[in-house]
From TrEMBL, chains A, B:
Protein's name according to its UniProt entry: Xylose-responsive transcription regulator, ROK family
One Pfam short name: MarR_2
Organism of this sequence: Actinokineospora spheciospongiae
Record's signal peptide: none
Gene3D superfamilies per UniProt: 3.30.420.40, Winged helix-like DNA-binding domain superfamily/Winged helix DNA-binding domain
SUPFAM superfamilies: Actin-like ATPase domain, Winged helix' DNA-binding domain
Family: Belongs to the ROK (NagC/XylR) family.
Length: 370, 370
DNA sequence: CAGTATTCGTTCAGTCGCTGAACTTAAATC
DNA sequence: GATTTAAGTTCAGCGACTGAACGAATACTG
């Protein structure tokens, strides 16, 4: 804990107002005062700062019924700090630029097999793509990089699918760079202002990862390794997994064990049987997760989203059978609609979260680089 | 989020100082200023309030080497608010009174089979025990009740081992009552100022529960159901469990599946084989937990603590085999030394946590009841 | 033993941020 | 055009922290 002073009060209230503006675009200063409980004078003072710093913009007079002076509409500034997100996959580098509202403003995709390629080489591509997106004429407040492996601090400790280890993801761009695991990044992409704030995203991309979101924040674990769902044991006598152990979920529900969507749609019996098995095993593993964490919403992403229609049945059956709290609040299972862009999108939004969380410091720092 | 004002600053800094005093008993005001970063004037003002409110006491001049005026030692007041904790078990009601430092000052145990007994009857016993402990002449700041079942809010939704359901744990005592799951309560008892702040307590009492502590706080889940380790599936073709599913950890590592300590010490082959199996299955389930949450310390409690010498081997072997992050930070497994009192102790300490977390509000409320 | 150096704790003016009330501005209604 | 209602601004006041100055207490020094 740090000592607190009046500056912290201002920080807190600035963030509070920015969040209120985000949630209620077009509202007036008076409306904000009513919503937040702050005095009108305080709102005026803080909003003026946010407007001066380019985070909030006045959108013109607000529509009202009845008499009285019309308020000035406020909304997130479209020219505020944008986020750049880059996802490094085994066969692609996908990037996007998101505006302050979280919408995608530009995209870049560089195809090519990164497996075994030198990290420096790939990071040079990443840097070029970031620079290209940052040159769009909008301010960039942060850059995020999603990688398929174990991340600690800004270092990718191990990425079996890329055959990388101990790679320091340090880009030479003038803004903060955040590094995240791919599943965690994809999980953050599902976090929407009006959506659930507690869920697990299951990300089927080569391995099986999970991003666990509790009250809008990622559960990262002590070292940042959390979410390794793929190596939950679902059958101690099962087949040997790449990790050395037996019966990991990945051997049943990883990409290698899944059929194509085409084969499933054709009703291929082998495909359907594989999906039945994958769904059941996923359900078994996720029941364990739900029993442990009491997080009642499951979002299927990646390959599992594409195959969701065939996975839902066995998955839900297994959840109903095994989740202890199901009687009081049955878990819900849905499929992500974000597609391949999820990881880049999530990490792009996360890259500017520090500004959302503490706009006052950002404004004081005046650190609009790039 | 709420709007913040100067009051919140004071709240925060009061809590900061109380925490510093707790961690450094006997320190002076000047020392606190150096530790916390607050100005001496602020420390004086806040400490005076804490002393006036009975939370902190001056312990006399502090020993110092070198010249200069000697400071006045400060420490948690031994006459500050105490906590009362009661654990309701299947065959006992165990209670204790803890002082502000967390030490046990008095105990009560009422033996007797609560299984199937009317909840009102048992709660009457609980109330009597609480009143008895509260009548010790020390102020009581909160009461906690630990129960073996699913808890939401102050309601025990379901306790299969007691055959209770939907019981509102509302005691007529003049202080706040907190209700917690037994495993969670036992987990909180392991939380010590100088100990780890991230761990999982596995509580083997009839069922198998877990209390997950992350950064000193319990992970309760969305509804408060988190920690149901006992029904993690460790073998989909295993024996049927009381919950209806197959292969739950509880059927391998629950009390019913464990031998007595005596049998194990005697080297009984059947007992040893049961322990080998229980240890392996525990390791399998806990590997999943560690992979999911990246919480690298496991504390065995209850029956598992008593049988720990026989469980450690297979448990650690399984963890080494299955935990993905083990290469960078191998999990550690230890046994709890708290014994049967753990749940009552943990919930007693938790019952006064609201005062620790916000002493200023407590003092303003002047709510020293009982 | 007196003087000095050093540290503890308090006092006080100063600053900063929030507040409530008064005031100004602006739009709708009569 | 007057009136009513609401938005936004101005301003004195308050509470909390700060830094410097001060008084108090102790140990060292000659």
């Amino acid at each position: 804990m740090r000592p607190a002073g009046q500056l912290d009060v201002r920080r807190h209230n600035s963030a509070l107002l920015l969040a209120a503006v985000t949630a209620n675009p077009g509202c007036s200063r008076a409306g904000l005062a009513a919503m937040t409980g702050l005095a009108k004078a305080t709102v005026s003072s803080l909003v003026d700062h946010l407007v001066a710093g380019g985070l909030v913009a006045e959108t013109g007079p607000v529509e009202r019924t009845g008499r009285g002076r019309t308020g000035t509409g406020l909304a997130l500034s479209a020219t505020g700090p944008h986020g750049v997100g880059v996802a490094v996959g085994v066969d692609h580098v996908t990037a996007c630029l998101v505006d302050p509202l979280g919408g995608v403003r530009a995209r870049r995709v560089r195809s090519g097999d990164n497996r075994g390629r030198a990290p420096e080489q790939v990071l040079a591509v990443v840097t070029r793509v970031v620079r290209s997106l940052a040159g769009q004429g909008v301010p960039v407040g942060g850059v995020g990089v999603a990688v398929p492996g174990l991340v600690r601090g800004g270092v990718l400790l191990s990425a079996p699918n890329l055959d990388w280890s101990e790679v320091d993801i340090a880009l030479d761009v003038g803004v903060p760079v955040t590094v995240a695991n791919e599943a965690n990044a994809a999980a953050l992409a599902e976090l929407r202002p009006d959506g659930p704030r507690d869920y697990v995203l299951v990300s089927g991309e080569v391995g099986v990862g999970a991003g666990i979101v509790r009250d809008g924040a990622l559960l990262t674990g002590v070292h940042g390794f959390a979410g390794e769902l793929g190596h939950l044991c679902v059958d101690p006598t099962g087949p040997r997994c790449g990790c050395g152990a037996r019966g990991c979920l990945e051997t049943y529900a990883g990409t290698a064990a899944l059929p194509t969507r085409q084969a499933a749609a054709n009703g291929d019996p082998e495909a359907l049987s594989a999906l039945e098995s994958a769904g059941t095993r996923l359900g078994q593993a996720l029941s364990g997760l739900v029993n442990l964490l009491d997080i009642p919403t499951i979002v299927l992403g990646g390959d599992h989203a594409r195959l969701a229609p065939w996975l839902f049945g066995p998955l839900r059956a297994e959840l109903a059978r095994r989740v202890i709290g199901a009687r009081w609040s049955p878990p819900t299972v849905v499929a992500s609609t974000l597609g391949r862009e999820a990881a880049a999108l999530g990490v792009a939004r996360a890259a500017v979260d520090h500004i959302r969380a503490d706009p006052d410091s950002y404004l004081r720092g005046a650190g609009q680089a790039l």
